[in-house]
UniProtKB/TrEMBL annotation:
<keyword id="KW-0812">Transmembrane</keyword>
<dbReference type="InterPro" id="IPR007941">
    <property type="entry name" value="DUF726"/>
</dbReference>
<keyword id="KW-0472">Membrane</keyword>
<protein>
    <recommendedName>
        <fullName>DUF726 domain-containing protein</fullName>
    </recommendedName>
</protein>
<dbReference type="InterPro" id="IPR029058">
    <property type="entry name" value="AB_hydrolase_fold"/>
</dbReference>
<keyword id="KW-1133">Transmembrane helix</keyword>
<dbReference type="GO" id="GO:0016020">
    <property type="term" value="C:membrane"/>
</dbReference>
<dbReference type="Pfam" id="PF05277">
    <property type="entry name" value="DUF726"/>
</dbReference>
Amino acid sequence: MRPIPRISTRGYYDLSNGKTLKNNPYYFYPKPDFKKLINSKEITIMIHGLRNDNAGAVAKVILAKNRLRKLGYVFPIIGYSYDSNTKGAHLIKHAKHALAVGQIIAKKNGRNLGLFIEDFKKLSPTTKIRLMGHSLGSQVILSTLEYLSKNKQNVGLIEGVYFFGASITEDVPSSKKYGKILQNIVNKKIVNHYAPSDEVLGWADNEKYVKGPLGLNGAIGKTISKYHQKLVKPKNHRFASYAAVLSSFP
């Protein structure tokens, strides 16, 4: 099997506390596949959630690719692989700490993914870039958009954003700060696939680990015009379940 093309920051952050270990921006694997992306009409980057090692990250790209192909999407789909398999994430007693560390690492990765996007757009200015994020991947996307918003030339740089089981908070699309960032940096639309039946987000909300996850009941307040949301009924919180109920893309 050919390796799945991916941008990676594996080993850049400490899995027990989120500290930065390496200041490198990112690496791309396998390198020859990077050149093949240049001058594509568009590309989609899939960003996984918490508790994914490198193999998990690859599996999520394959899931996204298979589903999008079925929906008639023909452009390249690549992965973004980051240190989300934080220590103790699978144990209830360590869950809060593991999630907190995951959130720190996800926020820091905004710079890494942002740098990749800026670098890639310099080489391939006409390529449209779409970002798909599952669970904690929504935080990576939000932090990436925040990083990109620091440069006025990045207006409309991202074509579309697609959230699945998002763990960012429900006030993001209506907040003054983030609403403006989303509206400015995303060219066409932000689509949030939310599920009141999502057991992991429901638990995180009840335990107050995430106060009002955007992926649970959708957005609150008056949202920006580019924001749309779709009520979905996945079997559970896993990305495979969200992919299975995805009915259209982009």
